[in-house]
């Protein structure tokens, strides 16, 4: 393998030059909050309390996406939003599973309970 002598070519910028007054790209603060709430919703999903942080995470993710679109690319954090949303949905699925299991267990226990009065064997 041979290498060419001389300086390495510098890659040209991929877009129009930025205006000096444009803000620097910054990660959206709501993206971190969505991830944290989604994680909390996923961790507490089996204990029905996971529904609250999961729903808040989904609402914040919706707002953050709107703000990121309106910012024209200066708000970043889409990966954190995706992870937080998927964790929030996982938390909601765990809540639904635990509710279904609780209802099935309740129905089975209700079916096993004696119906009516339980009289002594010598009573007609």
In short:
With 124 residues, the protein is mainly alpha-helical.
The low-pLDDT segments are: none
Q: Main sheet: which strands, in order across?
A: 1-2
The count of strands amounts to: 2
Helix content: 55-70%
Can you tell me the overall shape? elongated
The radius of gyration is 28 Å
Portion in strands: under 5%
The run of helices and strands is EHHEH
Q: Give the mean pLDDT.
A: 85
DSSP helix count?
3
Distance between the termini: 103 Å
Helix/strand class: mainly alpha
Biggest beta sheet attributes: 2 strands, parallel
Descriptive report:
This protein is mainly α. The chain is 56% helix and 3% strand. The chain has three helices and two strands, in the order E-H-H-E-H. Strands 1-2 form a two-stranded parallel ribbon. Helix 1 (29-43) runs antiparallel to helix 2 and helix 1 runs parallel beside helix 3 (78-112). The longest helix is centred in the C-terminal third of the chain and has 35 residues, at 78-112. It starts with 25 loop residues before the first strand and ends in a 12-residue tail after the last helix. The mean pLDDT is 85.
Identify the notable features of this structure and list them briefly.
single chain; mainly alpha
């Amino acid at each position: 393998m041979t290498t060419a002598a001389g300086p390495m070519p510098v890659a040209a910028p991929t877009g129009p030059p930025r205006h000096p007054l444009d803000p620097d790209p910054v990660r959206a603060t709501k993206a971190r909050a969505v991830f944290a709430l989604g994680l909390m919703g996923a961790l507490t999903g089996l204990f029905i309390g996971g529904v609250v942080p999961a729903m808040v995470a989904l609402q914040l993710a919706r707002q953050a996406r709107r703000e990121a679109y309106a910012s024209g690319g200066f708000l970043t954090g889409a990966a954190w939003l995706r992870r937080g949303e998927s964790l929030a949905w996982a938390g909601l699925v765990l809540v639904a599973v635990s509710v279904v299991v609780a209802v099935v267990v309740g129905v089975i226990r209700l079916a096993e309970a004696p119906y009516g009065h339980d009289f002594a064997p010598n009573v007609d």
